[in-house]
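User: Let's play a game. I give you a shape written as tokens, and you guess the letters that built it. Ready? Here's round one.
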């Protein structure tokens, strides 16, 4: 067994979000020197269960193994069928297991990616469950720096208490960039109200959810409405927002489909 190859793969597996739990099994599999092998990993996210199958292949020219991809099978508590996605491993820009789950939940993540020329760039990524590519994979939408989405600016248009403290603000933004549905304290009419938020790069804003995890139909805060010169009444604005809510929200299929995604192909 190539010891340096093992150490590299061990770290690659660890930092792709699978921790140290697979280290012993990885070593045992490599020692058998088979042409390819898989490792299995299970994670719980609330009531959801995500099973990952990690795929490894041995080089035809050497004793080196490569971690090529991992398939996630997401089983939601209220769904009979599982949603399957395959994520491909790219040098320096891997989507982690938790990020994969967040993407499969319809949320957006922010990553430093590498293009075909080997150049690094930053982009927001979100699955488009309404479209598939030529290979039958769900389309992966990217919103690059030039698209103009500024998470900090989007957050500042809302009365969020955590933004008042630099450390809390940094933690909040970092969590949202990983695709997490993040708890935040809103100051409304002199009261502190706990709500949840995530990023909406396509519409250059944030999504807000109430205590029952129902999306609140107000894409625009009062500051946003004023800056855009809207003169409509609150009632008219509410009606308009209700009409656009379904279009704004990412559509996660009610019945899970078995699709794969190669995020390197879209770069």
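Assistant: Ready! My guess for every position:
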């Amino acid at each position: 067994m190539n010891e340096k190859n093992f150490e590299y793969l061990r770290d690659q597996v660890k930092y792709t979000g699978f921790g140290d739990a697979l280290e012993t099994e990885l070593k045992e599999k490599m020692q058998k020197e088979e042409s390819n092998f898989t490792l299995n990993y299970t994670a719980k996210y609330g009531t959801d269960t995500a099973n990952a199958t990690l795929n490894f292949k041995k080089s035809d020219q050497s004793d080196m193994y490569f971690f090529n991809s991992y398939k996630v099978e997401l089983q939601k508590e209220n769904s009979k069928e599982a949603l399957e996605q395959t994520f491909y491993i790219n040098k320096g820009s891997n989507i982690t297991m938790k990020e994969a789950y967040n993407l499969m939940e319809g949320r957006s993540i922010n990553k430093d990616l590498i293009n075909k020329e080997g150049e690094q760039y930053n982009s927001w990524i979100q699955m488009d469950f309404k479209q598939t590519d030529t290979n039958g994979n769900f389309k992966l939408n990217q919103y690059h720096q030039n698209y103009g989405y500024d998470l900090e600016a989007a957050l500042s248009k809302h009365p969020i208490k955590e933004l008042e403290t630099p450390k809390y603000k940094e933690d909040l933004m970092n969590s949202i960039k990983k695709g997490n549905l993040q708890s935040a304290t809103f100051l409304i009419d002199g009261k502190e109200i706990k709500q949840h938020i995530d990023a909406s790069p396509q519409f250059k804003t944030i999504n807000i959810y109430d205590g029952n995890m129902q999306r609140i139909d107000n894409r625009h805060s009062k500051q946003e409405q004023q800056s855009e010169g809207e003169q409509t009444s609150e009632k008219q604005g509410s009606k308009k927002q209700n009409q656009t809510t379904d279009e704004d929200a990412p559509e996660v299929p009610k019945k899970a489909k078995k699709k794969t995604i190669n995020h390197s192909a879209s770069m």
